[in-house]
Automatic annotation (TrEMBL):
Protein name: Phosphonate transport system ATP-binding protein
Organism lineage string: Bacteria, Pseudomonadati, Pseudomonadota, Alphaproteobacteria, Hyphomicrobiales
Similarity annotation: Belongs to the ABC transporter superfamily.
Domain of life: Bacteria
Alphabetically ordered keywords of this record: ATP-binding, Nucleotide-binding, Transport
Region (Disordered): 1-28
Pfam families in the record: ABC_tran (PF00005)
GO MF entries: ATP binding; ATP hydrolysis activity
Span of domain ABC transporter: 43-281
Keyword Mitochondrion: no
The keyword Transport is annotated on this UniProt entry: yes
Amino acid sequence: MERVPTEHVPVPPLAGLRPANTGNPPIGPLVKPPAPVLAPQIIGARGLAKTYPNGQAVFAGVDLDIRADQRVALIGSNGAGKSTLLKCLIGLLPSTHGEITTLGERFLAAPNAAQLTRLRRQIGFVFQNHGLVGRQSVLTNVIQGKLGLPGSWRAWHHALARQEWREEAMAVLAEVRLADKASARADQLSGGQAQRVAIARALIRRPRLLIADEPAASLDPAVGRDIMRIFSELARDHGITLVYTTHDMQHALDYSDRIVALKDGKVHFDRPTTRVSLRDMDGVFHG
Ligand SMILES: Nc1ncnc2c1ncn2[C@@H]1O[C@H](COP(=O)(O)OP(=O)(O)OP(=O)(O)O)[C@@H](O)[C@H]1O
Ligand SMILES: [Mg+2]
C-alpha cells in the first residue's frame, strides 16, 4: 500500500521554552502558578439596586464581593446609600433588583424567614446609637446579645442565664476592657464605654460577620479611634469579617484592608486600602 508522505510541519517551540536564537538561556517549561486560594465568600452582590417605595432611588448596578477576614470600610457622603446598602446586604431591607449571597444564603430582594433567622445568628451589629437598655446592667446587656440564638429565652435577664453565658459575657467584656463595669447600669456609662459594651454584645454572638454603621460617629476623636482599634483588632484576632461605614477618612484608612466608596448611586471605587490615596478620597466627596 502506497504511503502518503507526511507533510513537514515545523514544530513550534514548546510552550514555556524561549526560542533558542534569543540569546537568552533556555528556561524550563513554565509551571502554571497555582490559582490563588480565595478565602470563603461572605457577601456577594450582583447588579444590586434599591429604590425606596416613595420613589427615592439610592443605588443601581452594585456588584460587591467580600471575603472572609476582610475589614471593609464603606464610605460616601451623607445620603450616598451606605446604611441602605448594608441593610440590603444582610437582608434587613428588600432590594429592588439583583441577587445577594450572604453567608451562603442566596436571595433576590429579601431572604425568606428561615434564611433571615440563619443570617441573624451569624451576624453581629453595632450602630452609632449603641441601643443598650439603660436601666439594666452591663452584664445583662451583653448576655442579651445571645437573643435569637438557640436556647436564648433565658438571655433576657442575666439571673436566668446559663453560667457559661455569664462567663462568656465576662470574657467578652474583658476583651473590650470593661470587665470592671459588669454590674454598672448601662445608663451610667460614657459614650465610649457604652459603645464598647455594644461591641461586647455583638461579639458574644460569635458572629462570622460584624456590621457597624458609623460606630464612632458620636465619640470624641480619641475615644473614636479607641473604638475603631478595638473593632479592627478583635475582628482580625477572631477571624470575623468586618464591614463598617464611616465619615472619618482616617478611620477608613487606618482600620480597613479595603475601601468601598459609594457615589452617585454607584460603586465609585473598590480597592485595597493601601492603594487608596487622599486624592481618591477627596474625589468621593467633590467633583
Ligand atoms: N426609609 C426611607 N424611605 C425613603 N428614602 C429613604 C429611607 N431611608 C433612607 N432614604 C434615602 O435614601 C438615601 C440613602 O440614605 P442612607 O441612609 O442609606 O445614606 P447614608 O449614606 O447612610 O447617609 P448618612 O451618611 O447620612 O448616614 C437618602 O437619600 C435617604 O434620604
Ligand atoms: Mg447612614
